[in-house]
Amino acid sequence: MVAALLLLAGTSLSNASDGAHWKSADYLVESFVEIALGSEYEVRRRQVRKWTTPIRHALVHQTGDAALHERLVRTHFEHLATLTGLDILPATSREAANLLVILSSESRLKDDLQRHFGWNSAAQRERFHREAVCLGVLSTSRRSGRITRAVVIIPVDRARARGKLPACVVEELTQVLGLPNDSEKVFPSVFNDRSIDDFLTGLDVLLLKMLYDPRIKPGMDETTVRPLLREISAELVRDGGPERAEAIAATGGLAASSP
Do the Cβ atoms of 4 and 40 come closer than 8 Å? Predict the structure, then answer.
C-alpha cells in the first residue's frame, strides 16, 4: 500500500493561545490519531504504519549544492534516529537503499513524478504543481502496516523560492517514518499546513516518541491503539515529557543550526 505526503504551499483541537493546550494527555492522543492514522486523501482511519527494519537512505542529486543538501538530510536523520531509536544510516549504494531522497528541480518534476510515483495523470501532476512544494511517498506491506520503502522528492528551486527548503527536509523525512497526514486540527506542528513552524515542535517530538514506543505495533487500528495511546500519553505528561520535548525541539537537529 502507498501513501502520499505533500508539503502544501499554503476548528483546531484547541484554540488556546497560551501554547499549553498540546501538553495534555487527551490532546496527544487525538493528535496522534489524526496524524498517524489519517490520510490526506481518505476520510476513513487507517492502521498504524511504522518502520521495523533499519533505514538505509540514499540521496539522488539532480541539482547543485550537494554538500548543503547532504548536511540538511544527514542532520535531520540523525535527529530522527535519536528521537525514535531507529537505525538510520546512509546506504552503501542507491540500489541498497530503502529510502530515496531526490533533490530535483522544477523542470524535472514531470519525469520524477512519473518515474518514482507512477503519476501519469495530468490532473495529479497539476494538483501538485498548484498546491504543493515537495512530496514523500511511503509503501507498506498490505496487512502488517510495516513500512518497507519510501521516496521523497524535493524540487530545490521551488522549495528555495518559497523559503521552504529546510521545512521540506524536516516534514517529508519525518512523515515517511509513519506520520503521513497533515491536519489543521493539530497545532503547533510541522504537519499543519497553516503552521509557521519549519522545524519539529515539542508536539511533533512526542508524536514520534509515541509512534516508536514498543507498545505501538504496525497494523494496529484505532480501536486497538487508543487504550495504549492513553497509557503512553499519561506517562509522558506525568513524567514531564512535554517540557523535555519542547527543549529537545528547540535545541536539536536543524533547529540548533538555524540562524
Answer: yes
pLDDT of residue 11: 36
Q: What are phi and psi of 35, to 5 degrees?
A: -90, -40
| Residue 155, strand partner residues | 104
Instruction: Tell me the per-residue pLDDT of 114-123, one tens digit each, with 9 for 90 and over.
Output: 887 776 666 6
With 0-12 CB in 10 A as exposed, 13-18 as middle and 19+ as buried, what is 231? middle
- Residue 62, amino acid: Q
- When divided into structural domains, the chain yields a total of 1
Residue 137 has pLDDT above 70, yes or no: yes
Q: HEC string of 167-206? A: HHHHHHHHHCCCCCCCCCCCCCCCCCCCCCCCCCCHHHHH
Q: What CATH number is attached to the domain comprising 130?
A: 3.40.390.10
Least Cα distance to 14 among 3, 1, 2, 27 occurs for: 27
Domain carrying residue 240: 2-257
Cell output for 87: 537505525
Q: Is the confidence at residue 10, as pLDDT, over 60?
A: no
What φ, ψ does residue 247 adopt, rounded to 5°?
-65, -40
Look up residue 227 and give its three cell numbers. 487504550
